[in-house]
Amino acid sequence: MVEDNNIYFILNRDTDSVKIGITKREVQKRLNALQTGCPNKLELIYAVKGNYTTEKYLHKLFDFDRIRLKGEWFNYSYHIKQWINNDKFLRINQ
Fold this sequence. Notes:
Blueprint: E1 5-12, E2 17-23, H1 27-36, E3 42-50, H2 52-61, E4 73-75, H3 78-92
Antiparallel strand pairs: 1-2, 1-3, 2-4
InterPro entries: Phage_T5_Orf172_DNA-bd (IPR018306)
Pfam family, one: MUG113
Protein name: Bacteriophage T5 Orf172 DNA-binding domain-containing protein
C-alpha cells in the first residue's frame, strides 16, 4: 500500500497538548494553517508517512490521553513521548 499521506504530531507547549493528524499536503503547510487559528505557538515535533488506518490506530492507542471524546488533541503524555522516541529509533535502525 502506497502511503502518500503524512501523519503529524504538532505540539502546543502552552497547553501541553499534541495534535495527532493526517494530511496529504506538506506538513509545514498544515502547521501554518493550524497556527493561523491558534494564539499559542505550535511546533511540529514528529512526522511520518502513513495512512488513515495508522492515524486511527494512533488515536485508539492514546485514547486515554485524548482531550475531547472525538478530537485529535491529546495530553502530551509520557506514553506519546515514548512512542515517538521508539518509532524514531526503529526507523533509524531499519
